[in-house]
Amino acid sequence: MSDLTLFLDLLSQPCRSVYIFAKANNIPFNYYEVLLFKGGQMSDDFGKVNPLRKVPALKDGDFTMGESTAMLQYLAQKYKTPDHWYPADLQKRARVDEYLAWQHTNTRPHAARVFWIKGMTPYLLGHEATPEKLNPALCEFNATMTTLQDTFLQNKQFLAGEEISIADLVAIVEIMQPSAVGVDVFEDKPKLSAWKERVVEAIGADLFNEAHATILKVKEMQNQPVPPELKERLKARLELFTR
């Protein structure tokens, strides 16, 4: 049995990036499912692994950590994955790190905001999001996608060069979040659309689809009951995105 355990919920975009990376690189790990919508992150056992109570989390023997991008870097270096994922060359690695630093305040929050407003408003409040709430989020997200295409991708095959890296993996899982609630992410962005196809091909379509199967069925999941206490916490989070 592997000493490595990954604590994941594949509804979470950072969890998907870690899951895909480990599976694509044949890294042996134990899969511990933490169901966020059932409050699994609040258990005492999980709190011992990640006191911040966020997924993904990693336990490697006695070593524990959170934060998906740091986790990807750790796995790449420990398991000596192919160099293109996290290059040894200083400048190539810097390009990967550049995107990873940028996405924290751009791709990630802007994609998440669209997902929550468009996808979670009906689930939690019982009605569709109003244009006054949704349109600013969509404009912000579309501007981010334009920057992703024109500034980071440009005419390259992938975000940081001519081969896939963890930058592409981190980007695609975030972009799939608004896509799952019906947003045409790639409309009028042919370079970005072609990039997505290359990413899927590099990862493998079966693995990509496996990792995204749950999030792509998120509307079906909304028919399931949610504990009242958790629903109130989710409403509070939704309120943050609609301010």
From TrEMBL:
- Annotated signal sequence range: none
The entry's cellular-component GO terms read: cytoplasm
| Enzyme Commission designation | 2.5.1.18
Biological process GO annotation list?
Answer: glutathione metabolic process
Q: Where is the GST C-terminal domain?
A: 89-229
Catalytic activity field: RX + glutathione = an S-substituted glutathione + a halide anion + H(+)
UniProt keyword annotations, A-Z: Cytoplasm, Transferase
Residue ranges of domain GST N-terminal in the record: 2-83
Pfam families (UniProt xref):
GST_C, GST_N_3
Where is this gene product found?
A: Cytoplasm
Gene3D superfamilies tied to this protein: 1.20.1050.10, Glutaredoxin
Q: Which GO terms describe its molecular function?
A: glutathione transferase activity
Quaternary structure, from the entry: Homodimer.
Q: Which protein family is named in the record?
A: Belongs to the GST superfamily. Theta family.
Please report the name of this protein according to its UniProt entry. glutathione transferase
**Species annotation:** Engystomops pustulosus
